[in-house]
Amino acid sequence: MSEMIAPERYRSLGELLRDALLTFKSEVALVEASRKKEKSAYTYADFSREAMKVARQLEEAGIGAGDRVAILMSNQPRWLISAYAAMYRGCVLVPLDYKLEAPEQAALLAHAKPQALFVEYPIFRLFGEGDIDVPFTVVTEAPASEDLMELGAAQRYEDFLWAEYGDATAPTFVQRERDDVAAIVYSSGTGGRPKGCMLTNDAYLEQYRGLGSLFPMTTGDRYFSILPTNHAIDFMVGFVGPICGGAAIIHQRSLRPEFINWTMKEYGVTHMAVVPLILEAFERRIRERLDETKPTTRGFLEVLTSFNQLLTDRKPNHDISRRLLKPVHDAFGGHLKMIFCGGAFTDQARAEFFYRLGIPVVIGYGLTEACTVATVNDLKPFRGDSVGKAVDGVEIRIDTPTGQGIGQVLVKGRTLMKGYLDDDEQTAESIKDGWLQTGDLGWLDASGHLHLVGRSKNMIVTAGGKNVYPEDIEQKFEGLPCDELAVFATNFIWPGGDLEDELLVAVYRGEDGDDEALRSELAQRNHRLPDFKRVGGLVRWDGDFPRTASMKLKRGVLADMLRENLERAAIRPL
Length: 574
Description:
By secondary structure, the chain is an alpha/beta fold. Helices cover 33% and strands 22% of the residues. The protein contains 19 helices and 28 strands. A nine-stranded mixed sheet has the order 2-1-11-10-12-13-14-15-16, with helices on both faces. Helix 1 (13-23) crosses helix 2, helix 2 (44-60) packs across helix 3 (77-88) and helix 7 (201-214) crosses helix 8. The longest helix has 17 residues, at 44-60. It starts with 12 loop residues before the first helix and ends with a strand.
């Protein structure tokens, strides 16, 4: 078992990855499955060879230091291969969300102005004429019969990038410096002005150093990449982290539950990153299986769970947990060591449920503007009540705290972005005196753990002077009979109302006929809350809730949609 490569002596992310591919050349690097079949597998040496073909084509196209290379693909080995090839050439990565609509993607491309674009054929087909104005566009997996030139002067990936390397001259490695921009990553939300976060090589190397010291991945580990790789979490813990430790990265083309289960068992997955919605689905599956067992079996399992909790109280021990709770662990492939969870608030009870079963959930808090993670729980001991302490090298401060210690969370450190692309005004609003203004509200306890309570804008102040944060209340309504539910302050949706009339409303989406069951159960739970935290009305919304690629609710976008389509009169009192 090897150790992760230390980043301190490297000047760029590309240089670090180049050494990793050489160091672990005989290890398996990338595996791609499609449903229940393995589609491809690459050793680290294979990875390097394929990337050099891509890098050579970029060089022949005159693309190099500082040029922007956009990637618009779902999770697959070619995403990582193309990204590394671009970094090898000293380019700036522009990872884009493949789940956005084509007009949104086209708007981001127009804003980023990349010199090259790597895009999957199904995504490419959705663009209209003139949507893509990129000098060097390469399309993967296009049918041989398709004339790509007619679709926008694009080139077929397979025609030359995967051709035999032959005696062609090796591409030139272009070194970059720590202060140079390594990637332009667009933060959550596409409404309004695009916000392309310019992240430096230093930011990524520092982030990798901080996270790697806490959660190193090594040879023999197998990371299952299910969050989009353009997302900050998967880029760091599902690409940079595994590669720099000699671990394998597993991709699955179909993310239906049965294929996720098969992949975890087939490849013995040890690490994965999820968002709270996926974690909730995992918990539901476990509880459903437990409900199917005999009462005596459930009782015995509860005894083992309590014993495991006692033995792992100070820190996780995968070997002990796996032996004690083998049926539970086998359901996740038998080798799962930990789950990284981020992108939205993680329910404390759910995180504690998994830890008792010996599958620790690493809870963190971060923003794209801060590279990936600003705080994280180091599991020594596990705490599900907070989002952890500041990562080494990061400072956290609470701005103008109330009497309860609650205020806006400010972040400072080398992992912060250089600024927003071509937008000095938004940059100045977001970073003041070196501190990132997160817009999130929270408080720090005596041990330095950060506790989040909501977003500053979606908040009400009661007549009694109490600040109420709707996001804090949503977890009390988890599991209600509806498809989706979010709590809002009415003046956040419909500004200008009288403060005396301000109340909380539950916006929900569900099937016809569910309303009465929802109202009944919500009323029961509502009654258990302090009066100032109770929801005062219901708003039905028939469409899907807008979410980011990591399934985080786009609150502002949903509020805009409600405001444009519904009047305040749509609120039905409880």
